[in-house]
Structure formats: structure tokens, C-alpha cells
Amino acid sequence: MLKIKKHTSLLLLVTCISNIALQAQTMQDYANKLITNELSFESKADIQNWDTKNSKLSLSDAHFKSGEKSLEWNWQKGASISINNLKGLKEAGDLYPGGQPEFYEPSYYPKQRFGGIKMWLYQEKPSTGKMIFQVGSNAETAQKTPKYRFNVNLNFKGWRAVWVAFEEDAKVENYKGSDEMNNIYIYPDKKIKTEGKLFIDHFLLLNFVSNKRHSDMVFTNHKLTHFRDDDGYEILPPYQQYLDYKFQQQIDAGQLAKESKHIADKLEFLILGDQTTDYKERKTGIENVVAKKIEDAEANYQKLQLTKKNGFVNGIPLFSIRDEHMPENGQIYDVVFLNSIYQQAMDYRLNNNTSAKEKSLLTLDYLLDQGWASGTSSGTVDHVIKVSPIASTVFLLREELKTQNKLQEQTEMLIWHTQLGKLLNIDYTKGENSDRIRGGALAKLMTILLMENDGRKQKMMDEFKNYMDHAIAISPGYSDTFKPDFSIYHHAGTYLNTYGTNALNTMALIHWLLTDTPYALSANSTEVLKKALRRQAEIAFGVNIHPGVGGRFPDMTSSIDKFTLPAFAFMSMKDNDVADPEMANLFNYLYTICEPKNINTMLMPNITYSGTFGTLNLMVRLHRLAGKNFNRPADGVTVMPYSGLLTFRKDKAFATVKGYNKYVWDFEGGKGENMLGRYISFGTLLLAQGDDKNGFNTTGLEMNNGFDWAFLPGATTKALPVDKMTFIVQGDPKYIEGKHRNFSESVIASGLSQNGNGIFALDLRDDVFPDKEKTLFDSTFRAKKSYFFIGNEIICLGSNINNDDSRYSTVTTLFQYKFDVNRANLFNGKTIGNNINIHQKANGGYFTDQNGLHYIVPDGQKIVFQQAPQASYKNEKAKFEKSNETYLKSWIDHGSSPKDEGYEYEILVNTPTDKVQTYLKPNYIVLQKDASAHIIEHKNTGITAYAVFDAKKSLKGPLSSTDTPIMAMFKVQEGASILTIADPDFHQEKWNHNMSLMPEAIKNAPNKASIVTLTLKGEWFLAAKTDKLLELFHQNGNTTLKIFCKDGKSIDIPLQQDDHKK
Q1: Which residue among the candidates 63, 490, 491, 623 is catalytic per the annotation?
Q2: Which helix (H) or strand (E) holds 72?
Q3: Where does the Polysaccharide lyase family 8 central domain lie (predicted)?
Q4: 491 catalytic residue (yes or no)
Q5: DSSP 432
Q6: Lower Cβ count inside 10 Å, N or C end of the chain?
Q7: For residue range 1035-1054, what is the model confidence (pLDDT) as tens digits?
Q8: Are residues 617 and 644 in the same domain?
């Protein structure tokens, strides 16, 4: 069977540990199950049943894609090959049994015919015409009445991959005959009048050919689209659009050249810097990082084993990143991009190393020969998003390539791989994919800058500006990128680290590059980018965000320091001058708290690139200009309905809570990623208090060092052992792409903000079709949860907690920290001590944790405190390793099979320990806590706060009824009182049970507004005009209001009891 080479850059393989019930499979396991025969043409045994006519077959070492040889076919007019009784062909034509055939982006496929051929073809020079392949039950039918037929265009030079799914791509209409395939007949079409030479290698027969295959200039497939409604990686259509477009506009070539040079000079500055060493002041060590990468590039270059003979460059075979059938001696294109070619180009430009230049230029020739060229998909371009390194290489070597008359060929390669033609037909009805922005937008700009100064370049620059303005605009529905609350979407959900913030940084960089040019981005783009950056700072404690908004990377909570800090500089400056002092001061605050070296991941090309030495120069200079002016995010509440997130900041305290609903999914898993995170959106409330420079790092909240993910602070969960918490995503007939990114049937997972106070509510429903044991996925699990943030108090209520699981207790966790002998935790004012084998129970009481946060649990509730070693897993570079660390945690125990259980507790922030006693008698009254609503009256502030789950019932307090589930906060005070409401339902189109195969029509459907009608007790009058209030009238001594709501936003209505208009 095929031996697949494992690369750390390619595979994120899970180490299977004892105690994990689900065992992860490697890519080789998946690949080998699909192969019915493989031919590498290393010996004549592979061609013993290959009969030829007017042609000759031989094994050649001139070119190869597997092993060290390929099959060379020299043919003349009237030539053919008849492959008789080909082993594995019958099985390739049989039914695929159903299941999950692929390692990456796992999806379930039904019992159906998906089999076919994957092969590589090579030509030393392009030919005209086509090569025809026919498949039949025997030699005669293969030649005369085949069941399958497909054509390969021969207008190429170098290696080309051809992936054919027989039933979809090659089926002959009205075929009648046997379904058992045994023979293949190959011949050139009649248009070819001359002789030719074709090399064939890495010839695979499979009973499943990937739906990720992509048409190119060599072969056009006809894959079924219902397995992927919109494949954003389709690469042939945009290229054809580009080729067919009539570039006829009149231009000023001199002006265009001047503008292009201005932008190119700014970009080159970001990469190479200038004659200063200002960047060293930041002390990132980037100069050492670059030097080491340049040093390593030589060794990596040697591993490519490049040789040039007869004008052709050979080396190790290269393949696409999502080709799961790469041979043992193969590599992915990305390894060349990331490990050698760019570094050598940079070495030449920085150090004038001419040897590095020659090696980089030779590598470019090698890539073209291997199939990284215009017009070829190499079988699939799925997840081919690391285009920045190769684009940056060509950009840095543009003059040298032009001298060798090779720039045009490389530019055409980039036009193809950046899908530049899409700029000519922008789809304004949907958002742009974050991957396309973070991995392709800068590469697109580089490609345009490399073009000749003609009408084509002028048009593409104009359309690039339009493209970026569109990509930055608020997008509809579930589509990428920005939402009205500045959530950033990918995979139809919030992604406020990696994907989203990578895209944000790229947008800001391009904004800076295009400023003061005819292609400067719009005022709306400027506003959106600045608001999105401010929102990133607002939801972070220092640089740390809630792990629940990080997709399948919950450990990657520090996004600002790793991905977006340059963006704050780009949006603060015009060239080297401060353009926005407020943004500059926010940058300066973040600059002082970020670990300098963390930004290095963005300072060398990968998926995303932010420039290198010049980018740091810019940041250092902005820091100097800002001086001692800092703009820390203001205290208050930030609500992000599209993320199911609320954050609260007051003085030294910070809190952030996450939920999910019918529009916002729960969690995302992956290969070796987030295998423990299923409960992360079950109301997880994370708190910190102290110096935000340290973020969560010094609180003891170590979530990847032995943390028990069944006990997430604030969340209501089942107390599952770690083996039951572990989940590896697998596709199945119902959950095609796996049981993650799940939606519920509830609309409530959002919040409200009013002058620094706020509410978050969660109607928690586990509506995922249960697993066999009803453990981690349990469709009987329900809970109503609310969090009221008022002053220094966080009041947490829970009701209607239900499930049928009699094996495991259901719990609501107060806190969980890594044990530290030097940090004191108290219960009822007394130190708990350092014994590491504590398991105590109490009937109410109050804790003071090691961060000075106080948890008051009223009597009559079963609380448990544990300080002991616990079994868990630690994720190290996508490998989950068993851990046994000591943690302390406390929770409210609702018992097994809870029936309408509840809880109530209060958290005090910014409160000295000696003041806690004054809160033991609550400052609030719980007016209602049931399935209809959670309502509190806060006596000291005059606030009555509502989380209304069921609009059908009458309510207690000043708000008597509402026709819609809402959150409301009514603050009665002298002068103008304030009623704030938020409709948590932002009225998007709903899709199924999880994100699997979400149709484009739903993904891109705009959301709708709503009109909420509510009634207040007594007569109230409008104190100040607001356009959100549509109607106010009095009836029977009460006041009815009709309020316009949209996007889950908080709406303030100022009211008074005296009608001053009289």
C-alpha cells in the first residue's frame, strides 16, 4: 500500500493515549482504505498488461512523481495503449460502501459510486489536441463502447494531475452493458497529426476520488455540487473570466507607473525596512529569526535535491496540501514556499547573496515544472491559501526575473493561483472568505503590481480597491467576515483569533499601502476597520479573549499580540505620521502590554504576512510619537450577539461569558484540536482581577495544563470523566461534517448593555442528536441561565436544569484554578490550606479566591470544593498527552437526572475581603426565577433587570409584559429614567442542526429587524427623542411601547413620569 510521508507542516496527528475511547486515524489509514491499485512504474511488472500500437513504452528516470522513474510513452499517429485486466479497476468502479473517506475536512458520503483514477502526466513541451481515456469491461468494449470516457488537453508543459471520478466526470450517456470495469484504452485524438511523448506516473485507482478535485486547463470535471453548495476554491472560472475580459479603458501609463511604484516602494519598505535599525528597539529578536531562517533555508534547499539536465529541473515530487495520496518521497508545495525559496530571496535582497538569488530562481523553475503553474490545479487547490510566500518571492525578485524574461510566466502563475479574475465579477451578495483575505489579498495586490503598466493593470487596480471595500463591509447572514457587532466570521461562526484577526490585519495593512493613492479604501472601510480593532481591545483582558470565540483553537486566546498589533499601527498612521491620535494611543497601550516576540509569527510569510523590518520600524516610530499617551479600553459592558458573547470591565476586574443558540454554533473541533471543548459555550464565565498586562496568565486559569473541561467556570454541564469529555470529529449520515458547529433551537444567547451595567442570558438546549450513551451529547439537557452585571456585583441565576442522565451529576462550576501553594483561597473567611487531597461539601457559604474575587452562595445549595490531582490532557503541538495536575475547583451540585433544578450565587469584584460581610445579606431581590423569566431588583441602584425566556407569561416588577423574549433593564432615577431592551433574536435564516452543508442561499441571507411591543406599569412619557421608539401610548393606567430592534443591539429609551409637554 501507499506509504505516505508524514510532515509536521502538513499533518496534525493526534497521539492516541490510553483512556481515550476514540482512537484517531492517521491520513495514511484513510488513504490506504481507498486505493485499489497503485502504479509507480519502478519496474516493468507495472506495465505487463499494457499493449501498444504505433508507439513504445519504457521506464524513464528523466521525470518522476513517485519513486525515481515514470512511464515514458513515445507515440505516433494512430497510436494507442490497451491496459488489459487492470488490477483494482473493477473495485474502483464498484460502489463506495459509505462512510468518512478523507482525513481533512471530514465529511460523510453515502453508499454510491465515487471511484476513479488519480494520475500525473508530464510533457517536455506543449502539444495540440487531446488524449482520450476510455474504460470498459473488456478490451473491445473499452475501445468501442466504453462505460466511461474522458479527455485530457495536451496544451501544457511540465507535470499535471488528472483526477477523475468515473460516474460524475466520465460517464457515457445511454451506456448499456456490464458495470464491471477491467480495461482502459488510451489514444490521441485525430486532430493530432504529429508524434508525441507523454510521461505517466503516480497512477492510482481508488474507490473514492475526492470531491475536492478542481477543474483546470487540462481537465474539466463535473463533480456533484450537493456535497458542497459553493466551492470557493474553484480556480478555473475566475481565470477564464480574466482571459475573456476585454481590457479597453484608456490610461495614463506614466501616471499608472508612478502610482504603482509608490505602492510597491511602501510594500518593499514593510518587508525589507530602510537604512535604520529602529526595529531593534522593539526587541522582538526578528533579526535573529530571519538570520536563522536564512541559515536553515540552505539545508532545506538541499533537501529538494534539485538537478538541472537538458534544460529541465528535477527534484523531490511536489503535491497539493489536500492531496491525501502523496508518495513517500513527496512533499507539499507549501514546504518549499515556507522553508527555502522566500528566505533565499530575502537573503539576496538583504545581504546581496547572489548564490541565494540563483537558488531561489532555480526553485521557481522547479515549481513550474512540478505543476505549480498557471492553468493547473494539481488535482485540488483546496486550502491552497499560503500564496503570500511565493508572491513575496516573485515580488522581491521581480527585476531579476524580468531580466531573464521570466517575470510574465511567474505573473501568470500568480494570476491563476490568487484567482485574480474574481475581481472582475465580485459577488456583492455575500461576504468574502477570511482565508481568501488573509492568504490571498496581499498576494493579489503584489500580482497586480507585477503587471505591465497597461489597461489590464489599471482595471485590476480599480477592481482591487472595490474588492477590498466589499471584503471589509458588513456581510450578510453567516458569511465571512464582519458582522454588525464586529464579530468576524469564518465557517459560518465567530472566529475572533486566527482566521478573523489574520484577515483584519491584512485589511489594515492594505489600507495603509493604498492611502493617498487613487485606490485608497473608502471612508466606510476605514470606519469598519477601526471599530473592529477597538472591539478586539474591548473584549480582551489585556490581550486575552474568551476561548469560546476562538473556534477550534481555544488555547490561542492572545490574538492581539500575535496577529493584530500591526493593524492598530496601520490604522493610526498615514505613511510615517499619526493620522488618528485616539487609535495611536490605543496602539500605544497595547504595545506596552504585548510580549514583543509574539508578533514574530506575522513577520515572515505564511498564510498571512504583515511585512518584516519596516512593519516593526513603523510600530516603533508610532510608539515614540505617542510617548506617554495611552488609551486603555474603557470600563463597561460589550455585547456581541453574533458571537454569543458579553464582556464586562470595571476598574481592575474583567469578566467574559459565552453561549450559543440557533444562529451561533457551540464549538469547533479538528484533527488534534479542541478535543475537550464541547461545553465551552454552555455559559462559561471567565473572570480576572488585577493587572491586565498579564491577562489570564497569572490568574491560575491554566486551561491547557491539566484543566478539567467538564468543570468550566460559570457553565452548567455534566461532570463527565475526561475520557467521556474527549471528542474526535467524525462525519455521519446526519452530521455530514461531524458533530460540531452545532446549533440549538433557542434564540437566547446574548446580552444587553446600559451605562456600564449589563445582562447576559442563555436558554441552554442541547439539541444535538445524542450519542449512543447520551453522555457528551444529550438531547434531554436543558437549563435557563442569566448573569446580571451591576456595579461590582455579578448575580448569577439558573433554573429549569434538566436531563435524564442518572450516571453523572450535573453541576454549575464557580471556579477552577491550577493549585499554587503561594496563593491563598478562603471559605467563609478561613484559609483552605495547602492539603492536596481536599474534597469538602457545604450547604451554602462564600469563597474568596486567589484573585480576590468573592463567590457568595446562599444557603440551601449543595456546594463542593475540591483541591486534588485530576486526570486530564494537555495539548502540545496538536498532540494530546495525558496529565495529572493539582487543581482547586468548586461547584454547585445539582445531582444526577436533575428535574427543574436551579442555582443562585453572586460574585463580587473590586471588593476588599473585609467588605464582603455587607453583601451576605443581598443588595438584590430575585423577583422571578423560572422557565418564563429571571428577574432581579437591585435595591441600591434602582435597577430592575429582566431575562425573559417566554413572552407568553406576565412578569413581575415594572415591566408587566412583552410580546417577544427579550432582555431588559429599567433604571428608575430622578429626572430621566432609562429603559434598555435588546431582542436577542437577530432573525437570520435558520439552518438545520449544525453547519454541515449550509446552503449558500441561507449562508448569505440578510437578517431582519423586529418590532418589540412591551407594557410598563404606570404612565411613562418619553424624556428625549429616539428614532427606535415607534409608538408610545397609555391604556388602563399602563404604558405600551413599540420599539424597533435589530442585530441584538441594546436600545435605550429615556422615560419620565411627568409629561413636560403639557
Answers
A1: 491
A2: strand 70-83
A3: 655-910
A4: yes
A5: P
A6: C
A7: 999 999 999 999 999 999 99
A8: no
